[in-house]
Amino acid sequence: xxxxxxxxxxxxxxxxxxxxxxxxxxxxxxxxxxxxxxxxxxxxxxxxxxxxxxxxxxxxxxxxxxxxxxxxxxxxxxxxxxxxxxxxxxxxxxxxxxxxxxxxxxxxxxxxxxxxxxxxxxxxxxxxxxxxxxxxxxxxxxxxxxxxxxxxxxxxxxxxxxxxxxxxxxxxxxxxxxxxxxxxxxxxxxxxxxxxxxxxxxxxxxxxxxxxxxxxxxxxxxxxxxxxxxxxxxxxxxxxxxxxxxxxxxxxxxxx
Amino acid sequence: xxxxxxxxxxxxxxxxxxxxxxxxxxxxxxxxxxxxxxxxxxxxxxxxxxxxxxxxxxxxxxxxxxxxxxxxxxxxxxxxxxxxxxxxxxxxxxxxxxxxxxxxxxxxxxxxxxxxxxxxxxxxxxxxxxxxxxxxxxxxxxxxxxxxxxxxxxxxxxxxxxxxxxxxxxxxxxxxxxxxxxxxxxxxxxxxxxxxxxxxx
Lengths: 256, 201
Fold this sequence. Notes:
The complex is a heterodimer.
Chain A: E1 5-13, E2 19-28, E3 33-37, H1 44-51, E4 65-67, E5 70-71, H2 77-83, E6 84-87, H3 91-94, H4 100-110, H5 115-128, H6 144-156, E7 162-166, H7 174-185, E8 190-194, H8 198-204, E9 207-212, E10 215-221, H9 222-227, H10 229-234, H11 241-244
Parallel strand pairs in A: 3-8, 3-9, 6-7, 7-8
Antiparallel strand pairs in A: 1-2, 1-4, 4-5, 9-10
Helix pairs in contact in A: 4-5, 4-6, 5-6
Chain B: H1 11-14, H2 19-34, H3 45-58, H4 62-85, H5 90-113, H6 116-125, H7 130-159, H8 166-197
Helix pairs in contact in B: 2-5, 3-5, 4-5, 6-7, 7-8
């Protein structure tokens, strides 16, 4: 079966010369959740931008990335962006419209969806993130957690095959974090989550990729990679607390 | 300066169904006011009473009304400078002053009673250029964010024992504006990427 994401020997150098990615390769199966870990400046966000065709500005002739078998190339960017939903780190960057409805409708309307079909899609996407009845709310009056969920609804409205998330829990309070985690857990699409939240990686992802200085330094099942304290410390990370102390009543995260 | 919370603002006028009719009424009022004679006379009572009536009906917050009028006042008073050099144009200045304030008050009442996105919807239906409407929409979305950022920078400056002295205040204000510009440019780039990620072409 064609993997949802396939990356082969991906390298990228910033225009000012710094190497951001070097020989990165991995694949993600359909419906699989993979965490992308690494210290600040490791190249995580740069890698995610490549998956959506946002970097490099002019895609090379020889592709290094395939989404559902489709190469990320100049001629296929529109289809690639429909297949790959990108949740940016700062919801303020992604929430561009004055109202929730307009924002969630932005992506599908770019894909040509209009009229009652668009209304139904927006309603369905908002319901999927637990924001039923928020359509007429103004974007700048939402809480941070609500903004994040509206962004997710906007991404889901494009019905992507792969969800790419850049630090999805970075500015959320524990309740918002718990709600987002429950939401993500129930989404049936493939997910690549770049995060410093190691508990999130452990909870949601079956597999972990560790990136440092633009290179893929480790890859494997989440529990075994995250339990390797020497590896974690060597790359600016740490072993998650829950792997030191098992909670007596099972997983800490209950329903949202 | 945050846009008004339209969930609660606007009084009975908020329930008025059509933003298109409100916009058309304000444009007619502005046109009528602009065409009034140069000499101030009783005709001025017509737009003045209409604006007053609309204000009593929609019950705007004083802060909203005065804030918007003050923002326009710099431009209105600018025309008064001309009157200093030409005594003959003083009556004209009075007419311009009254007309401009009436029009500004009418627009302030419109923004009080109508969410900006509804006005944008009307302008979109009128087929105004898409680039202009997108620019307006992004401006209204990101102005509060920019104001918040400026406020946070000022607070950070104050927390580091900043004492306002005339020369330093100007230098530091210039620095804040410069940094805000850079941050806005960076944010604009991120917004552009986020739009592209959702298929914007």
